[in-house]
Amino acid sequence: MAAADASAIGPVPAPGGEPLLLPREQHSISRRDIDPDALKILFRLQRLGFTAYLTGGAVRDMLLGRKPKDFDIATDARPNQIRKYFANAFIIGRRFRLAHIRFRGGKVIEVATFRRDPGPPPAGEEATAPALPSEPLREAAHGYAFGTPAEDAWRRDITLNALFYDPATASVIDYVGGVADLRQGRIRVIGDARLRFREDPVRIWRVIRYAARLGFAIEGEIAAAIAAERERLRSCSEARLYEEFSKDLLGPRAQAVFARHREFGVLRLLLGGIGAALEDDVEMFAATGLLLAVADGEKEAERPPDLAEMMVLLLWPWAEPQLGNGGVDPFPLLKKAFLGAGMIVSLPKGMRARVIDLLALVARMKRALAGGAMRGSLRLRPGYASASRLCFVIASGRAPLEGESFESLFREAFPGRPLEGGGPRRRRRRRRPSGAPPAQ
């Protein structure tokens, strides 16, 4: 952010009060940093007489001097009006209807109507409410309510994500004190933290994630609210938990995110016995942190591991002790331990099978590096290439360079000794019964 006297920020605006306005000379956002298609949407909506602002993470990241990943827009135009004026707009969502404006190359810019917080929807409403033609009736039935920019800001979860940028005046609009929180490097929940966490426990997860990724502090009152309400994460749907877990692994700074989960006692909640082991065993978690740090570096180099590979790096320090020193098949051992861990994050069946298979392959490769022999048939397994890279990371503590893999480690450890197998299996000839004539 541009240097500005913190005393000029003033007190945190009160709900319904006047916002803090930062003119162009007091912040670092430039239109040159904004996606051109997002600017076109903003200016077109404003020319049509609507209010339209850039909002959310894009504003936060640009104020911090970072390159935004997405550019989201908030406006007082209703979803059907957006679809009317933009031929490439598609309405999505049931409870919260949004417009996705699509461009070539797969780019999507999300445009949402300002909303106010109507409170939680009735139980089972999303599954049972009929489709209603009238916008006000649909709004009432599905539990969302359109509002003003101020109402939209105050309904959000944390102050850093509730800032607006007006391209017409090049000013930042702050209703909730987010500018002060950015400058002071802190995460603050909008409203009463315990109440907001009870309304939606996933907000606990988001607070921890943003604090970790930004390197910001979590104030004592909010930390106490996390400790008091974290068990409510058990009530969240499996789909939401899996979605948030995937964001942690695939997003930036996974090492820092999982370190914060451990700090707040959330790992044992999300991952059951696996998380408890990672929280209680300092050396085990340190090993996990080193592997996640390597993965974070690969993401920055635009060689990101996929979700299953990230899971293997997260779980390997826990998985390795489950195998002991014997030569038994590691797959059933890992499957039994994994399924018996009591995780509330439920992986889809196919993902779970792939993670366990990769862990088992890595275990066999580690045995080969220790003993100098490996079953050649393993090279025919579908996950062999991924497991080979993962084994290199686990064994060497760094990402493989071009040409490096488990096999290069094996050749280095056992010069001149070939890896067994690798070609197609030979068909075994069936023995002809005694006295039977030869096949014609």
Explain this structure to me?
This protein starts with 19 loop residues before the first strand and ends in a 27-residue tail after the last helix. A hairpin with a 4-residue loop joins β9 and β10. Among the domains are: 1-184, Beta Polymerase, domain 2 (2-Layer Sandwich); 294-413, no CATH class. 35% of the residues are buried. It has an 8-stranded mixed β-sheet with strand order 1-10-9-2-3-6-5-4. A two-stranded antiparallel ribbon has the order 7-8. The chain has a two-stranded parallel ribbon with strand order 11-12. With 440 residues, the chain is of the alpha+beta class. α8 packs parallel to α10 (220-229), α12 (254-263) crosses α13 and α14 (282-300) runs antiparallel to α15. It is elongated and about 95 Å long. It is 47% helix and 9% strand. It contains 19 helices and 12 strands.
